[in-house]
């Protein structure tokens, strides 16, 4: 940022500004996977990316549409993190959509995996939020002031 | 309008004298709407403010002013729900509950030692159960003695068992208004369907003769053609309620309910009671701070 700010030439200034802006505005729900091949860019985006239940601890239900896009066509599978079975797999394509009946009592990480290389090419988080947070202390106790 | 609806609620509770409505505890009424499975026993709280629309029939003379038997009243009201607790001391205000404001101390919390599923809470509470009935409040009470609002106190026990909540109140008058006693038992259950939370409440309340006599008897000194002399006995009242709550977002909540109150069959023997039952339907949208 400091370098951008002191550079006198307008063209470079504009370029720097754009790079800085991109870094600032990069949405948190879009992940460029770090463990993929350098040239591979992937996008995995849920809509909506948030599920709201009434009370903490309740299962939250939300119909979610997951859109994904990669640079290279291949076989890709969508996984809920730590699940053995994929939610869905696609053959020889570079983009797709998946309607997902989300149901969970906590936030869930979803991953797009290249089935051939077994590498995670993109991941995203569907957050679970509540209106009323749990405010309990479960241990049995008496108290007097 | 809110004041009038609030008065309806409060007045409804007052009517319990020997007959009147069952009071639904703020805690039970609020907890079942939230789908809670245990008491709020930690420090902290929340405040909700919103607007609602309510339609109701009132069985009490003068509430609202000019009220007639079976007359349907529709009003917009301010929906306020708040609870704050610190080191066991708490205050509660739930406008959709039949109890307006409760303060108290939570001195015991317990859980089932065997499966850790049941949760229990014992509180000592103090609350205004019955509102004032006077000519200042309603012109229908002209010529009658003023019946002061009261303040009652006593233990409140609440059990949370799976999706059920059971609550018991045992209250006595501490305001030297009528020296009466009130006992109520309520059972509530909540169901979740997707992100909707549905609830049901049934309850019964007993009010001693002292309460009934103070609010709904007409003594010789105030008796008239409109309000003949009458001695109100102790009595029961019963409440049943179904409702739904839905989180529109993390900060906005929709609520709706339908409630029916049944009084003793002889409730309207009192010149101050028009009917032996009342219904209410209300919806509200609130912002949670």
Shape verdict of chain B: globular
- Average the pLDDT over all residues of chain A and give the rounded result: 77
Greatest contact pair? Answer: A-B, 27 and 35 residues
Let me know the number of strands of chain B. 12
Overall, the morphology of chain A is elongated
**Over all CA atoms, what is the radius of gyration of chain A?**
21 Å
Helix tally of chain B equals 3
CA radius of gyration of chain B is 19 Å
Looking at the structure, the CATH topology of the largest domain in chain A is: Immunoglobulin-like
**Count of discrete domains of chain B:** 1
The percent of residues in helical segments of chain B reads 10-25%
Low-confidence stretches of chain B: 1-26
CATH architecture of chain B: Beta Barrel
Order of SSEs of chain A:
HHEEEEEEE
Low-confidence stretches of chain A: 1-9, 19-39
**Major sheet size, sense and barrel closure of chain A:** 6 strands, mixed
Structural features:
heterodimer, A: 145 residues, mainly beta, Immunoglobulin-like, 2 domains, 6-stranded mixed beta sheet, 14% helix, elongated, B: 289 residues, Outer membrane phospholipase (ompla), Chain C, 12-stranded antiparallel beta barrel, 3 helices, 12 strands, 10% helix, globular, disordered N terminus
